[in-house]
Design a protein that fits this description.
Number of helices: 14
Strand content: 15-25%
Distance between the termini: 36 Å
Shape: elongated
Number of strands: 14
CATH architecture of one domain: 3-Layer(aba) Sandwich
CATH topology of one domain: Rossmann fold
Strand order of the largest sheet: 8-7-6-1-2-5-14
Largest sheet: 7 strands, mixed
Radius of gyration: 25 Å
CATH class of one domain: Alpha Beta
């Protein structure tokens, strides 16, 4: 069975915005789940984030494929009643609001679990369901200790990608949902997915010395800091950059022999010497020459790539047809076989499936009344 169909019978209500939750529900949608994205009448803020392709946010297109969109005003009694009706029909609810907002909207676990006695309820938060602080990726990696371990000696450096949102939020949510589905029970299940807490396993390597009682790892001295000579980045002859990581002695020996520097074989841990010699060595060859040498002599190293060569590689981008924009490109799912999983559905327009979903739950006669009262919204094409 292809992964694209393993969740065919599962319905998920996605009440999340921005990056962590939407990426999680997209992966579940890629696996075949019926993901209903529940949005306010103005939509997920990510719909309004640049860059834009015509009027469509490229970020929205990348994060919300394989979903249906319904717009509800949960602050209105009838909007909340519609949502409760949807809860009766679903297997999983993923909530991405702050705890105070969850309580204010009356969509907390205690309320929804009474409606659906087999509900899998995932509350995705920054700091946990009892901590109402607002935050973003940078704040979470700060509190999880990752930021303090990244950068030069004098100050931490902000990573170039959202580590907490994806590594502490999106992926743990997917893992949690799949695990909960595997152990389906005749009772509701609640999961508090704190991004800060789910970042702690990322500390496993650097925390080893601390847990062993050897003190805190220093930013520029621990093995993964990028400042150990044999685990770092160097500039080649053509001014491009090379990543270099022969941590094991056998790979270091391979490198020394490959560059005719057998005198360095027993000097791997002479950091001062390596700091002087390695930049000189790497300046003697171009990036392509280094890449070929790494492969030939079995050395952990490679070019530091920009996005263009990354996405020019076959199957990393998937082309799908957008009803208004024509052919657009999306990042392919790494979890699916590209030869059998080309049936991606583009991200829905705001409220595109409101009418369809309400008809599914037997509320078709109320649609026009709900529209007039501003309880629901549909896309302009209806």
């Amino acid at each position: 069975m292809p992964l694209r169909s393993v969740l065919d019978e599962i319905r998920i209500l996605d009440l999340t915005t921005n990056l962590p939750g939407p990426l999680a529900s997209q992966i579940l949608g890629d696996f075949g789940a019926d993901v209903i994205k529940v949005e306010s009448l103005i939509g997920d803020p990510i719909r309004h984030y640049p860059p834009f392709v015509d009027h469509e946010s490229q970020l929205n297109l990348l994060l919300n494929r394989n979903k249906r969109s319904i717009t509800l005003d949960l602050k209105q009694k009838e909007g909340l009643e519609i949502f409760y009706k949807l809860v009766e029909t679903c297997d999983v609810v993923i909530i991405g609001f702050r705890p105070s907002t969850v309580k204010k909207l009356k969509i907390e676990y205690s309320a929804l679990s009474k409606i659906n006695p087999k509900l899998i309820y995932c509350q995705l938060t920054g700091y946990g369901s009892t901590d109402n602080r607002v935050g973003h990726d940078l704040n979470y990696i700060g509190e999880a200790g990752i930021l303090n371990l990244t950068g030069p000696k004098n100050y931490p450096v902000v990573p170039g990608v959202p580590i907490a949102d994806i590594g502490g939020g999106s992926l743990p949510t997917v893992i949690t949902v799949l695990g909960a589905l595997l152990q389906r029970k005749d009772e509701p299940q609640y999961f508090d997915i704190s991004m800060v807490e789910h970042l702690l396993p990322w500390l496993s390597v650097v925390a080893a010395e601390y847990i062993a009682g050897l003190g805190e790892p220093e930013r520029t001295l621990h093995a993964l800091s990028g400042y150990i000579p044999w685990y770092g980045v160097y500039q080649a002859k053509d001014q491009k950059f090379i990543s270099f990581a022969p941590i094991e002695s056998k790979f270091w020996k391979n490198f020394c022999n490959a560059v005719d520097r057998s005198d360095l074989i027993d000097k791997q841990h002479n950091l001062e010497l390596c700091e002087v010699e390695l930049p000189k060595i790497f300046s003697l060859r171009t990036t392509d020459e280094w890449t070929n040498l790494f492969v030939k002599f079995d050395i952990p190293g490679g070019e530091v790539l920009t996005l263009d060569p990354i996405f020019r590689k076959k199957d990393r981008l998937t082309e799908v047809n957008h009803p208004e924009l024509g052919a657009i490109k999306l990042i392919s799912s790494p979890y699916l076989n590209p030869k059998i999983s080309r049936d991606y559905q583009v991200a829905p327009s705001l409220g595109e499936h409101t009418r369809e979903i309400l008809e599914e739950i037997g509320m078709n006669e109320d649609i026009e009344r709900f529209m007039k009262k501003g309880v629901i919204g549909t896309n302009n094409s209806e």
